Amino acid sequence: MIRRIALILVAAAITMPVGIGAARPSPDLIVESPPELSGVAAEVERIGGGDLKGPLAITGLMGFSAPIRVVVAAEDGDLAARTPEWVAGFASGGARTIVLFPGRVATYPDDNLATLVHHEVTHVLVAEAARGRPVPRWFNEGIATVAAREWGIEDRARYAVAVVGRSMRSTADLDEGFAAGGRRAARSYALSSAFVRWLRVEYGQQATSSILERLGRDMSFREAFVRSTGDTIEWAEHRFFVREAVWHTWVPFLTSSGVLWAAITALALVAIQRRRQRSAAMRELWEHEERLTAVELDRPTRRSVGFERSPSLDDVDDDVVN
User: Fold this and answer.
1) Is residue 124 assigned to a domain?
2) CB atoms within 10 A of CB 274
3) Residue 308 covered by a domain
4) Residue 107 belongs to some domain of the structure
5) CA distance 244 to 231
6) Does residue 282 belong to any structural domain of this protein?
7) Containing structural domain, residue 80
8) Residue 62 CB partners (closer than 8 Å, separation 6+)
């Protein structure tokens, strides 16, 4: 019996995928940087040795099985010159290589260096979980953003603004936004991460890892999505972009007490402004009337002129002699 168990364990070890036995909770980062960025490189190594449970959980992997190469690029280098300014980092999942531009970490969704490192490391894990199969851009970026940052005030605000912006009503629109770059890319980040969060709430926290695992078994994304969620991607898009975005974002926002008080305050300010305008017009009218009155008072009064009657021949006395 013991011999039989031993043979089973040996067979399991032989058939186990390479690297799983050596999986670790933290990645082995091989960091390269120019001398002037050695401090940043040290910080990247420290971040890599920290807690990366989020990226592992959302991709369904048990740990990191192989090193990841990290290139910390200077802003005045050729690599930075060839990369759009809004890109703070990028990853090549198949090559297990990520490139970071620390001078751009203020660009959403990467608010700091730790968020940027977690984001790009997650891209490598996505490629590993899908076994190198193509992953839609919106799904890849959504997973990386959710894994790297908590859903905060800025995310909610950007999501609300993106909903009322130019129509993004499908995952195809999100991919077009990423390709366009700039503000459209920022909107795509906000919406794709919100969509991925919604998928995990609606279909379970394992939805993302289940889709990636099925992609790794050579299923199409459409089939992997249906088998993992029970719905088509089109129906999920409709529920999120139409029903969720409108009814669960703007209706609560517009009916909230904060918005109500803001509307009351705005109306009060408008009323005050109009009252001030009317008061100013009345004061101007009064001043005009006062000026007219002053002019009337300063004008000289008209006086009558008297004339003395010249004596006539009748007025000459009779005693006048020659």
Assistant:
1) yes
2) 10
3) no
4) yes
5) 16
6) no
7) 16-129
8) 20, 23, 56
Q: What six digits make up the tokens of 73?
A: 């690029």
What's the order of all strands across the beta sheet hosting 97-100? Answer: 29-32, 68-72, 97-100, 89-92
Ramachandran region, residue 131 (left: φ > 0; alpha: ψ -120 to 50; beta: rest): left
Amino acid at 78: D
Three-class SS state of 100: strand
CATH, residue 96 = 3.30.2010.30
What is the sign of the dihedral through the CA atoms of 96, 101, 102 and 108?
A: negative
Please name the residues in contact with 19: beta carbons below 8 A apart, sequence gap of 6 or more: 65, 66
Question: Residues 272-305: pLDDT tens digits?
Answer: 777 677 767 777 777 776 677 766 666 665 555 5
What's the domain count of the chain? 1
User: Does the pTM of the predicted model rise above 0.85?
Assistant: no
Identify whether the C-beta of residue 121 lies closer than 8 Å to the C-beta of residue 160: no
Question: Would you say residue 109 has pLDDT above 90?
Answer: no
Buried b or exposed e, range 205-233, using 16+ CB within 10 angstroms: eebbbbbbbbbbeebebeebbbebbebeb
